[in-house]
Design a protein that fits this description.
homodimer
Chain lengths: ~450, ~450
């Protein structure tokens, strides 16, 4: 009964540097291309959108990038995040597996997103930026940037996809509590928004449109820059504090994962937990199986093409090489809104191409079943996005039971579901479906991918 | 920039015993009276509602009561809860005060309530109980008991005040995610509920009615007991882990509070933070000022009478001596639903009578202003209840500024506001009022207090 259920590191053990997987990969990432010229972009091309410090991180090949002291000071409010041993879940599953989860829901915004939001806000403040723009779908990222902006004294403007804006007033209220301005996208505040509204006044919006709006505002104002919550190398870099802490905590538990599991939408929380372990394997250490769990309704890793594509619908962003369903692909409206993105982070895409990770796609009902089982055994109600990782971890634990193997499983519980209870209401009322995507729409979107030599 | 902002204790420092203030008080609490005979109740009178272990705690005069190992194991999921130094708030206020807050929102249910819910579920499970009934207003307590029931394998039935049931579907969904059954009160499942519905079919319910329903179900079923989330001695006892941890953490910070602040509804979170400090003072240690902050719309400590009263509307519960507004007093519908109770915990009432604490009442708009200032500086959006403590702490910090005194302030941030964002929406839209209570209704309710010799 005095079994250990939580591993807490001292504040002094918050990582002093982020880990850059690029340093250990056998080949470099494909270059980012200018949307007009299709030539590799240079720092100057990105300067209207990002401060130089972040652009330098985006292309860095250094293994370790120091975390500035003011960022670590803010991290200390909730980091090191706890690592839990899921003993009650193990018993409920009657599995010989040992299940550990890293819990990122302890941050003020309730997810892993502040790990990069705080860093981005810091570098922008240092560069004299006054305002940040961004987009948000489910609202996790917009909340995190609103919180980070409040911390460093930056104005924040969030373009929130119209359907979420209407369905999730609590997320908007949280952003406003932190002092951000949150507008529904498409809005009348940008050319991109007005163009969409002229054609489709009743549109529910999309993440691609919201990105176009946020990028447009940043590009047009000298005191304003743009912040992205996933996909880009520097965003994934900041999230590696998750895996670096988890490595130290697994050592406290006298264990090392045989299997590492994360959910993937844009790829940032998955990279955060997985990249430090993948890197350790590339440097000669143990090589756990690493499993990316994505929604079957938006399956970029399992059904997408590894190709150059735009990050947004309006084709204002540079082109990146990634697993993509096509920037014209509109996924059905399932509940894990944070995973509804047509592309996958270029670095996550590359490690899949290199055979360093596995990926699988889960329909949402199976994920909510896993989330509810987790809530009833471990007490935390996961975010719908995190349920994909819970499903993956439970499936691996059940495989251990079938095989009679006591493997060690580590997964990232990237956020709580406190702001997403409508999804659980719908699930428990039997109103959820698995909302498959439209195969012909996917084929059309793939056929429309930009032609890059 | 490397300033300390959080004090985390090792798991081994979770208290091994709860602290019972009764052992150190100069006089014992007044006896609890049977509602029929008006004679002091004995253990047998309470046995239909509570297991013997909790009845023994209710009347114990021992200073320390050991926390069972299985309870400490569950506590370890989130305890020790962090103590934070509110450095950004201090700077925003430009105060010489040092402000510390104990943060109980890290529990799975998001408040301090699981500290007692877990203990109550454990003792009931040990006693062979199969089901617990309870009432909930805002939903914090119902959520906590649902979580605790899932942890120990007990069925939980929650009678949720109709108005909250309708207004807070997310709270209900959380209880159901943990496997509890949540019904609107008044319900058709009890005599008490049916009687109210027969007279007032459209009633919005009240905590007093919901208590009557939960008590009735427990009293009528051998396998079912009742659980209360505040007010009673054993509930306050379980909450003292808050203050005991905070004492150790203040020592880490090389500080001791000059002022301890908590919000009060039934009194449990306030007792949790305050009683260990009051007790230390009674045993010859430093005596901080201790301030209870209650809602001006339901001001039991500042406007209530210290007298015997019932805990519920239906007068099914025993009578306790407490500061009460009268069991017939219906407070206006302000947003801190967890503080809408006509009475104050007998032990909190007694320490006020003994001059060991101060109390003050705050209108809700001033509290939301404080909560928003806190969210923008410290990043955590407080529960509306907790905003009363935030207001009290900020006012003391501003007094320090006026006086030029660098006092040390400790307050309990008893929960986050993730499930209460509608209140912030209303506040930010300017739709909140200070909803004063009806003075003549208060006088009538006081006049109707039971006559006890």
């Amino acid at each position: 009964m005095s079994e250990t259920v939580k591993y807490v590191l001292d504040e002094s053990r918050i990582p002093k540097a982020w880990y850059n997987l690029v340093a250990d990969l056998p080949r470099p990432p494909a270059p980012v291309l200018h949307p007009g010229t299709l030539q590799p972009v240079g720092p100057d091309d990105l300067a209207p959108l990002f401060p130089m410090a972040l652009i330098a991180q985006e292309v860095s090949t250094e293994r370790e990038i120091e975390i500035p002291a003011p960022v670590r000071t803010v991290y200390r409010q909730w980091r090191p995040a706890p690592l839990h041993r899921a003993r009650r879940l193990e018993r409920a599953l009657d599995t010989p597996a040992r299940i550990f989860y890293k819990y990122e829901g302890v941050s003020p915004a309730g997810s892993h997103k502040p790990n990069t939001a705080v860093a981005q806000a810091f570098y922008n403040k240092e560069a004299g930026v006054r305002r940040l723009t961004t987009e948000t779908g489910a609202g996790q990222w917009g909340s995190a940037l609103a919180y980070a902006g409040a911390t460093f004294g930056l104005d924040v403007q969030v373009f929130m996809v119209r359907v979420s804006f209407d369905q999730k007033p609590y997320r908007k209220a949280a952003m406003e509590a932190w002092g951000a301005r949150c507008v529904a996208s498409p809005s009348r505040e940008t050319n991109a928004g007005r163009a969409v509204l002229a054609e489709q006044p009743d549109t529910t919006g999309s993440l691609g449109i919201a990105i176009s709006e946020a990028v447009e505002v940043a590009a047009q104002h000298d005191d304003t820059k743009y912040a992205l919550g996933s996909v880009l190398n520097h965003v994934l870099l900041h999230q590696t504090v998750i895996g670096l802490e988890a490595m130290a905590q697994m050592e406290m538990a006298d264990a090392y994962p045989d299997i590492v599991v994360g959910c993937t939408g844009g790829g940032s929380n998955f990279a955060g937990i997985a990249f430090p372990f993948i890197g350790a394997g590339l440097r000669g250490g143990a090589k756990p199986r690493v499993i990316a769990c994505e929604p079957a309704a938006c399956p970029s890793l399992t059904r997408g093409r590894y190709a150059y594509d735009f990050g947004d619908t309006g084709h204002l962003t540079p082109l990146v090489k990634m697993h993509t369903l096509g920037s014209g692909f509109i996924p059905p409206g399932f509940h894990a809104g944070g995973l509804r993105y047509h592309g996958m982070a270029p670095l996550v895409s590359l490690v899949q191409e290199l055979g360093l990770i596995e990926s699988r796609a889960y329909p949402q009902i199976a994920c909510f079943e896993a989330g509810l089982q987790f809530a009833r055994s471990e007490g935390i109600i996961p975010a719908p996005e995190a349920n994909h990782a819970v499903r993956g971890a439970i499936d691996e634990a059940l495989a251990c039971k079938r095989d009679g193997q006591a493997r060690t499983i580590l997964f990232n519980l990237c956020g709580h579901g406190n702001f997403d209870m409508q999804a659980y209401i719908d699930f428990q009322a039997g109103r959820l479906t698995d909302s498959p995507y439209d195969e012909s729409a996917l084929q059309s979107a793939l056929a429309a991918l930009p032609k890059v030599a």
